[in-house]
Structure formats: structure tokens, C-alpha cells
Amino acid sequence: MGVHLKARNTTPKYFYFRLPHKQTQEMRRGLITVLIIAVWIPAYTQELTLADIWKNGTYRQESVRGLRSMEDGLQYTVLETDRGGKTINRYEYATGDKKGQVLAENTLKDLTGDPEAKIEDYRFSSDERYLVISSDVERIYRHSTKEKYYIVDVLNKQARLLSEDGKQRHATISPDGLNIAYIKGNDLFMQDYQTSKETQVTKDGKANSIINGYADWVYEEEFTFDKAFFWSPDGKKIAFYRFDETEVPEFHMPKYGDLYPEDYTFKYPKAGEKNSKVTIMVYDIGEGLIHKLDLGDYEYIPRIKWTKSSGLLAVMKMPRLQNKLDIDLVNTQDYTAKTVYSESSDTYIEISDDLTFFGENEGFIWRTEKDGYYHLYSYDMEGQNEKQLTSGPWDVRTFLGYDEGSSWLYFSGSMDQPYDNGIFRINLNGAAPEPISPPIGSNRASFSKGFKYFMLYHSKATEPSRVSLHRSDGSEVRILEENLELHEKMHGMKLSDVEFMEIPNSEGTSLNAWMMKPADFNAKKKYPVLMYVYGGPGSQTVTNGMSSNFWWHQLLCQRGYIVVSVDNRGTGARGRDFRTSTYRELGKLETMDQIDAAKWLASQDYVDGSRIGIWGWSYGGYMSSLCLFKGADVFKAAIAVAPVSNWKYYDNIYTERYMGLPQDNADGYDKNSPINFVEKMEGNYLLVHGTGDDNVHYQNSVEMVNALISADKQFDFYIYPDRNHGIYGGNTRHHLFTKITDFITENL
Question: What is the largest CA-CA distance in the chain?
Fold first, then answer.
């Protein structure tokens, strides 16, 4: 682990030189540009095994997880495990020295008198006097859980169970420390901290009908949040979502394992179907009243956020097609709303958490791609005095925060190459962005409160993660994890390089790609090729970071395969036009690009053009299926894991964002559905799905199977009972990749 190593000698800031953009563009005009990012000096060939990769954890990367900055920005806490159980400990950023113990599991048991009490997660109150401890956590969907909560007074060493009435969700102490809000069942509750008196704020909650304070399934999945209530800064109001999903169609999913399978039912709005009716409510504790906000016309409210003032709530609104975004500011004294920002698109607008208010409600910062690339802008509170803070033919990937004390803004971006992602800062008052991370590779940053320090997670395609602590100017303070053991293993092995390149499609567009050749590659031989694809809107598989499939792809290289991945049109980090080119026709251009790339590969002297396969998961499974069917003369085999088979089966927020309504775009839905092209299949096809997939329903594969049977096509089909979209748990991943590997060996 190495989380708390003593400080090493500091190193200088990172500096690098960047060619002028014009010169860079000229260099990129060639059909193929190759970058070999690592050179290995092989000592011996160690045969990789599926068990070592997927079961034994032999090549697992160590990292630093769970660090939480304290309010002073100088210390952090981390949940650690020792012989006595789990303990929340406090450390100093600068040195890694332990500064104290916040709470131990045994102490929690003693204070509560509950021998079953455990620390599985925790949250501080804003003044750090109180802790909310999560115990007996039960996962629901991708983000959602329910659990038992213990409330701990750290100062007075007191603790109690929040409620004896089952499990709750999202227990959160108010900023003033007087109350605790939480979800019980489908209703919002509040409890007085001192008296433990419980107030039921809403009373109309009902399963599969009315939800108060947490997100419905489709908001959780596509707008990526589950907690749907928020304390005002002064702790006197709670803004919350109310979902009326009464008219949303139900999806029934069998759960096996008992004599009679259980029928699990939940609301799932597929493309073209009715959504929940969403309203925003504000509960005024002093009044004891709930106010419903009048926000005019909208279909979706993807975000709400309190400004610096308890009397001003920001609300984002979108129509069903998600081609327009309004930001309203709601005065929670008289509950009037005013639109202060609006943008529209000929295609669609993606949602982020980048809205940031600064000063005493002086203005806000927003990330938008209205000039063709994602960049940062500042506005006053009226949405006026626009100032573009970053610019150029590159994307700001993530806005990381704003330090009001220094006026520095921090962000990640792909300034030079789409597959690299660096960390930068820029002053609100102007000047060019400054790099504060290495320019090459994959970089992710997590800042302390007050932005004095940040944790940098850095890797390259053939280099495991390195975790280090830096000052805000980029200078390194100490190293927390280097994965030295894994590095040592890798340098003692004969591994394949990763080559970054550009492959042209038939229309003259260069597509970013990487290639892994066998370590003993011989240009005079011909090799089979397996392509790895995802290809969905805004995604990337061509990134300069060690992927989760790195070791399995190395295993395939050891067995004589070349592995390639190509980012088709529609993928991210190359500007708005490139990403939105697939609008209303998902699958069309993407498949053309993958087929073109396969044809280019087949033309290379070292490739056996009769042995090209493709595999993918989720959107990638959709793509691999389409490629095999539409590219029957190119692909010999395809593997589709948990694929969409027709966009009419998938949820409406995601699907309609990129496809429009099926009622208005029937051709767009049908012309690129794999189901409608099964007759063209000539190669070998492996279809895999989990029956417990709440995201891409098993129904997709059932429909694919029916279409294949009707077309009299032979194929392989594997199901995983009760496994969700990730198909994991116990021996599942090892079993799955054993099957996939055997299929490749036998059919490619």
C-alpha cells in the first residue's frame, strides 16, 4: 500500500515544450503517426494465465483510495483495516504522519452497545464534530445503496443508531449541525440531533409511484446521481426532487436461486416512453412548509445546486430532446425564478457538475463547447459579462475547482493529443494555462480543501499507476504509491509495447488507434488480429493509461494475436463536430470506421486478413455485433457482451439524447439495429449476457437470439444468472474470460 510514506526530497515543477498548433497539425496530416510509448528489455517469457489475471490478482495495481480532505486542507482522513477491525485515522498531507485516530470500529461497538456495528463508510458534518457512519450497506443499482446509520459525536464520544426502523438512505447532517435529513422508504425525513425527534417531511412516498429525495432509475443511471436532496448553506431549508413515476412503464426481471424465481419489478422508461414527472420542492424548517417551485416548461432537471446564498437556488432545465439548457436562479424568499443562462444546440448538450459560483454571489463558472470545443467561461449572476477563460482546438475534460483565495482555476484537458490527459491551472484574471502534471499519459487529480495540495494519479498505457502528492503549483511533495513490485514483475517479463497511431477511414478522416503486437513480432509473418471496441458518444478506448484489460490483451499477444483498438467518429476529446457526427444515426458511421480500420489492417503485410475479429461490452457489444453482420466479408469472429440489440429497448434519456424520439426517427433506430442485419452474418459469434442486468436488459440478447434463429444462423450463447451489467462476483470474471479466450482460440 504505501499510503503514508515519509516525505521524500521534493522535485521541481513539470515543464514541457509544445509545438505550435499549426506545426502539430501538419505533422498529423500523414496517414499514420506512430508513438511507441515504452521500450521493454525482455529478460524472459513468463506465460500469463487467466487465473493470475482474473482470479489471483497477480498483476493488480495498487492505488491510494478513500483519502478525504479535512476542512483545514492540511490533513486528511482514511478508513483503514487492522487486526481490531476498521479505523478512521487522520494524517498530515505534507509528511504523511499520523495525527490521530478519529474513530475505531471497536469504539463504535462500545458506544452504541451494538456488537454488529461496523464502519463501511463515513461522512463528517461541516464542522467535523459529528460523523455519520454507514453500516450493513446494501447495494441497489449503480450508485444507490441503503444502510444502517450511526450518528457519532466525536467531541463528546457519544454514538447512537439513527433509526430502529429498517435501513435508510443518504443520512446527511445539516450545515448548522442541528438536524439530520435522510430517506426512509420513499419519503424524506428529518431528525433533531439533540432530541432525536423525527419529522416526516413528505408523506406521499410509494414504491414504483412517488419518490421523494432520491433519483428514479433513469436519472441515477444517465444523470449519475442518486441523492436528490440538498441542505441550504445555513441549514434552514432542504431543496429536494419529487419524482412521480406512476405512468412510467414497469420492467419485470426474474431473480433466480429459489424454487420459484422472484419477479423484480422497477420503473424503466425506454425510448419514446413516458418519464417521471419531476418537480423541485423546498422545505422550510422554520415554517414547517413545503414549497413547490414554478419552473415553467421542461422535461428534465439534471441538476440543482445552492449558490453561496441560502436564499438562491440554481436549477438546470432541459427539454426532452436535451438540445437546450437553461440555468434558473430561484429566490427562496418569494420563490420567483429567473433564467440567467441559456444555450442550445443543433444536436444535444451533455450534462456536467461544472457549475461553480464564486465570491459573494459575484458570478459563476461554466464549461461549454459552444465554440466547437469544451472550454471554461465566467459570467456574472445575471448571466452577463461573458469571459472565455480557455480556448483552442482541444477539450477541457473536467473542471476540478476554483480557489477564490488565489483566483486559480484547475482543470484536466487534452491539449496536445486526445489520448493524453493533463492537469492544468489558469488564473481567472487571464494568462495561458499552466501544466501542473506530466504532459504525457493519463492524469487524474483530487484536490484538498482550499486547494493547497492535490493527489496526482498518473499512468501510461504500459506503466502502472503512480500516486503522488503535489502542491497547487505542481511541485511534488512526496510519493504515496509507485507500484514498484508490479514494475519489477513487468521488467522481468517479455511484454508487448503499445503503439499509438492514426488509421485513415475511407472518407479521409484519421482515426486514433493503438496496437499491441506479440513481443517476438516478426514482420515477415502474418498474424491474426482482435479489435477491441466501445465507440459510444464521447467515449474513448484509445487513451494513454493502463486499461483494465491490459493484461488479458498481453496474454492474447503472447498467444500470437495482434490487438488493436480504434476510436471511431462519435468518440470524445476531438471537439463537438467529431463527437456529434453520429447524431440520430448511432451505429452507422461508427461501424463504417471500424470496418475501414479492419480493411486497413488487412492490407498490412504482417496481418492475416482472413483472421480479423472484434469484441466489445455494452455499446461495444452493440458495435461488435454490427461489425460482424455489416462487415461479413471483413470479420471472421465477434464477441458481444451485454449488447444493445435495438435502441428502442434502451432507456430514453440516453437514447433520445443521441437518437431523438423513435416516433420521429424510425429509420435511424431500425437501419442500424444489429437485429436487422443477422442474415448477413457469415463468421463466428459469441453472445454473452447477465439475466440480472438492470441497465442493458437481457431482453436485448433474447431478441438477438430470436433473430439469429429465424435467420438460421449458428452461434454461441452464454448466460450468467442474476449477474448485472458488470458480470462479476466470485469466480464470474475468470469464468467469463476463459470462455471468451477459448472462443478466440477456436475461431480466430
Answer: 81
Digit-coded pLDDT (tens) for 478-513? 999 999 999 999 988 999 999 999 999 999 999 999
Q: Which residues pair with 563 in a beta bridge?
A: 516, 530
The model's pTM is 0.92
**Residue 698 belongs to some domain of the structure:** yes
Q: What are the residues facing 640 on neighbouring strands?
A: 616, 687
The CATH number of residue 583's host domain is 3.40.50.1820
Number of structural domains (the chain) is 1
190 φ, ψ to 5°? -140, 145
Domain presence at residue 253: no
Write the CB contacts of 654 (distance below 8 Å, at least 6 apart in sequence).
Answer: 221, 222
pLDDT tens profile 652-674 = 999 999 999 999 999 999 999 99
**Number of Cβ atoms within 10 Å of the Cβ of 149:** 24
Cα angle: 313, vertex 315, 321; to 5 degrees: 180
Report the Cα 305 to chain-centroid distance in Å. Answer: 21
Joined together, the cell numbers standing for residue 570 give 462519435
Q: Quick one: pLDDT at residue 219?
A: 97
User: Do the beta carbons of residue 199 and residue 193 sit within 8 Å?
Assistant: no
124 domain-assigned = no
The answer to the question of residue 457 being in a domain is no
Q: Which domain does 618 fall in, by range?
A: 497-747
- pLDDT tens-digit map of 126-185: 999 999 999 999 999 989 999 999 999 999 999 999 999 999 999 999 999 999 999 999
User: Which residues, in sequence order, are bridge partners of residue 329?
Assistant: 314, 338
